[in-house]
Amino acid sequence: MSKVPIPFSEPPWLMGHPSPYYNESHKKWQKTCRALVDELMADAGEWERVGDVPENLYSKFAAANMLIPNLSSPLPVKWLHKVGIRTLPGGLPVEEFDYIHTLIYADELARNGSLGPGGAITTGMAFGVPPILKFGSQSLQEKFLPDLLTGKKRICIAITEPSAGSDVSNIQTTATRSKDGKHFIVNGTKKWITNGLWSDYASMAVRTGGPGPAGLSMLVVPLLNTKGVNMRRIKVQGQTAAGTTFIELDDVLVPVENLIGKEGMGMKYVMQNFNHERLSISIGVNRLSRVALSSAFEYCLKREAFGKPLMDQAVVRHRLAKCGAELESHWAWVEQFTYSLTKMSEEEANRELGGLTALLKAQAGRVIESCASTAILLFGGNGYTKSGQGEIAERIYREVPGARIPGGSEDVMLDLAIRQLVKNFQRKTQELETSIERPSGSSKL
Asked: pTM of the full predicted structure?
């Protein structure tokens, strides 16, 4: 590998280009993350090939305090101090962690070219813990957060079902109260649940009321070693090491105290968690696109065909240029979007950026499809082979559907984005009209 970075192999700010977004804390954090991730995930490609990660990988991340950066910013400082976590790797105080630090962490985690190993250790902390943190009662937090934040226990987020993916309001898993009122009795199935196999608990969306979104609630449901719970691995095209799981729930008893927030508010809790999820997906998918494109770029500099390097072919340069423009445009949007989050309250961000988050995530899927398919074509037969020079391109190409479907499928995201933008436009228009003072009295004209 050359010491001069291959074009598109790093975001512009890591290529030495000036940027307004990154301060000295961010730059130090990037170096710390890269060193730790390179150490902890050195065999990520092999793990993805065999479809599993070492049993002690999660505990290694926990010991290094590298699970906490998966939480949305600002971090839950009081709780972290309570469990003895005051700094992150590199001496970063938890109080100083912002969404730019989140951006850097998610980007570095995907730099190995595989989403599976990273997903195996991040998804539960990133998406399963926040509902408890944001909406759980004090007693619920006291019950679960100490072990979850320190990595002693694991949790997953369990929303999707065989008949309810992006259509969250169609969830069929039921939670009915027992006759003595002490438990919810949970019945149903959850599908494509990342980390489920290894999780002690799930932050689960269930139906406690009638049809539609108003009937949904969220519970902390025990999984491992729980009567009535059956879990099995689902073999998927990409992210094979992430522990994608099918969960069957047959009369599972869940204490009523495990209700997250208020009954009937599940839809709201689920939707507020999606912004962080979709941004995290967008960041990782952009880095995967970068790995695919830069690998193909480097290959084209060396590979000769028809008596000259592939890079001397105009059609090759055109393909690289088209993908490069898409990649860097998306990254610029990711950076700008992330910066906005550092300046907005969570309530404001959920209101103003929900539609744009969906659009950002949808565009990430389009970018990786473009970059990965181009890389395959430029690698030729090597890109069709699960070993050798084009192995990375072949592997990333299998990740494309996993970028375009989980977290909200592409078509649903595009539609949601426009509906949200229209809703915000109409609301602001109405607010503007009502704020204008109308002249009083009669006109003499």
From this structure: 0.93
